[in-house]
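Translate sequence into structure tokens.
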Amino acid sequence: MKAVAADKIEESTNSSRKRFSTRKFRFWMQIVGSAITVWIGVEFIRFVNYLESGTAGASVTRPPGVESFLPISGMISLRDWVLTGTLNTIHPSAMVILLVAVAVGFLFKKGFCSWVCPFGFISEMIGNIGDSVVGRWFKDKRLKLPKLLDYPLRSLKYLLLLFFVWAVFWSMSPEMIREFITSPYNKVADVKMLKFFTEIDSFGLWTIITLFGLSIILRGFWCRYLCPYGALLGMLSLLGPGKIKRDAGACIDCGKCAKACPSFIKVDKIKTVVSDECTGCLDCVDACPVEGALELKVVGRKKRIPKRVWAYAIVFTFWGALLLFKLTGPWENSISNQEYIYHMERMDGPEYGHPGR
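Result follows.
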């Protein structure tokens, strides 16, 4: 048996060295996505400072991509679009980015989380640090909560998602939707989001510190247990066409795929990976030493999807769709600099508080 396994590995060695590495390509795509996010953040800070200075100095343009941090506004815009057939122009990019991420989630599992999302990238980097720290004391290098704790905690992100869906698509009337969209709060929600970080209070700071610490101990703590965005994409991924399949006849039971999986999925024990936690990163396929033992396939078809095709398709679908909307609209919001200044000067007023508070 060992001899057969050795033969399989030896046969795959030469081709494995030449195979496309999704892990390396994904890492650089995460770097690109994070760099774009940082650039958007810096430009938005410059824009807000420009407005706070009374538009003194060289003109600074607001980057519409900052609306990727306004998923609630995006959901409400989606509801309004369904009701009226018209996309509001307050924060149009928020809904566009949400829909593109949802499309990627359906077509490529939770590909947005593992290939694009900067928070997913940060979570992975923190997890790598945690693995090296935990590995000094534990043989398996990665800590995972027992099922009695893991499953209830994983339900938290779904409860958060259900709350937002209920609040936006059920409890809010069309009049309330329209009132929120045109409210002073929503018009400067992007500025308030920035102020949360630049003028963070002790509660917010300790929350971030706590999440950082838990993410070191338990890999992907935020993504696995608390992120409602990830919950939505995870549910959609179960309906998607792409699935990772294991050929039991070719598999040598080395367990490398399971060890490589950032979501703790026991890939080496199942025939088809059907899990809301699978991010479509293909780390398991990359780690497999036997060609053909672990492959990505379309449901109902025997033909495999090459890793290179999957990787390029995720990148081009997400960034290509955003570029298309940027060029053809809707993308830019309709709030003038003067209106931003008017609202920013009054943001401490009660009408700019969180709705429902």
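Note: The CA atoms of residues 60 and 130 lie 40 Å apart.
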